[in-house]
Amino acid sequence: MTADLQRPVRAHPDKELLLQTTDAARRWGVDDAAVCVASLHDVGQFLPDFMADEMLSEGVSIWKASRDYRCSLSGIAGLPAKRRFTASELQDSEVEAFGKNPLTKAKKNLRHPDAQSKRINIHGPSLETFRSAVENAYNAGIGI
């Protein structure tokens, strides 16, 4: 990590959502890479302070660019899994296709912790507790 990236960070208002999702993913029992993907897939932006003003004033869609990148890493399209966990109606053929998809387990590992983390007045562990999952995934060669 460079010295510049260790400077204070301006976090998306949903930092607590990230912490809750991280905690839920760990309790769900997924590996470190899945913890990282589940935790970060919804985060709008984490920018070092020294870059934030410049990037935000240029009209760059940081959220879209970073989300597209994370989705490409995970290979997971979240919508079918999200519909399953949010109890919206699915056709029988959609349920059957979801169950047969080889990525179903990965999709559940992404969506379940996210669904468990949208509670109010519930505080997840500190951001520091997330460090080991990121380091383990990085050291294992997962490109997060």
What do these coordinates show?
The protein is mostly helical. The chain has one domain (4-139). The protein has helices at 15-28, 32-40, 49-57, 62-74, 78-85, 92-100, 104-116, 131-139; strands at 9-11, 46-48. The chain has a two-stranded antiparallel sheet with strand order 1-2. α1 (15-28) packs across α7 (104-116). The longest helix is centred in the N-terminal third of the chain and has 14 residues, at 15-28. The two termini are 14 Å apart. The model is unreliable at 1-13 and 73-81 (pLDDT under 50).
* Structural class label: mainly alpha
What best-fitting shape do the alpha-carbon axes yield?
globular
- Could you name the ranges where pLDDT drops below 50 across 5 or more consecutive residues? 1-13, 73-81
Number of domains: 1
Number of helices: 8
Strand content: under 5%
Number of strand elements: 2
Question: What is the helix fraction of residues, given as a range?
Answer: 55-70%
Mean pLDDT: 66
Report the biggest beta sheet as strand number plus sense, adding barrel if it closes: 2 strands, antiparallel
Please tell me how large the radius of gyration is: 16 Å
Sequence of secondary-structure elements: EHHEHHHHHH
Describe the secondary-structure layout.
Blueprint: E1 9-11, H1 15-28, H2 32-40, E2 46-48, H3 49-57, H4 62-74, H5 78-85, H6 92-100, H7 104-116, H8 131-139
Antiparallel strand pairs: 1-2
Helix pairs in contact: 1-2, 1-7, 2-7, 2-8, 5-7
